[in-house]
From TrEMBL:
This is MAPEG family protein. Gene3D superfamilies: Membrane associated eicosanoid/glutathione metabolism-like domain. GO terms for cellular component: endoplasmic reticulum; membrane; nuclear envelope. The chain crosses the membrane at residues 6-27.
Length: 147
């Protein structure tokens, strides 16, 4: 198996996803500071969030970050696998996912659950396409087809 020359684009996009995690860190840290909730409290209680909009915003930022952490590893797997067969398409879809997840993070942390929807839908479409490509690329490699 040979790594395509354009695979660097795939790695660049993968590295870009790490910056989205940094964005989440800042959004959560700012929301924590504003809410007054101290470490190690991971979330405001339902009662706190109902009484204090800043505690609710903190919960939104934390949930957005948790969702990102849950989805980044599968994204990276599908990106890296599909990029072995179609590096340019994988990089383009991956860049779409990264940008949409940044929009998701910012929207959720600043406008609540409704603010995440545009980023959610866009990233979901890119993610589904990458999953299909990864499955197809894996089957091609398993059957002995070259990139």
């Amino acid at each position: 198996m040979q790594v395509p020359n354009e695979y660097g684009y795939v790695l660049l996009v993968a590295s870009g996803s790490f910056l989205v995690n940094v964005l989440h860190f800042f959004l959560s840290a700012n929301a924590r500071r504003a809410s007054g909730l101290k470490y190690p409290i991971p979330y405001a209680t339902e009662e706190q969030a109902a009484k204090d909009p800043k505690a609710y915003t903190f919960n939104c930022a934390q949930r957005a970050h948790g969702n990102f952490v849950e989805s980044q590893t599968p994204f990276l797997g599908t990106l890296l696998i599909s990029g072995l067969h179609w590096p340019n398409a994988a990089a383009a879809l991956g860049a779409t996912w990264v940008a949409a997840r940044a929009a998701y993070a910012y929207g959720y942390a600043t406008r609540g659950p409704q603010g995440r929807l545009a980023g959610f839908y866009t990233s979901s479409i890119a993610d589904l396409a990458l999953k299909g490509m990864a499955l197809w690329a894996s089957a091609q490699f398993a059957m002995g087809a070259s990139a």
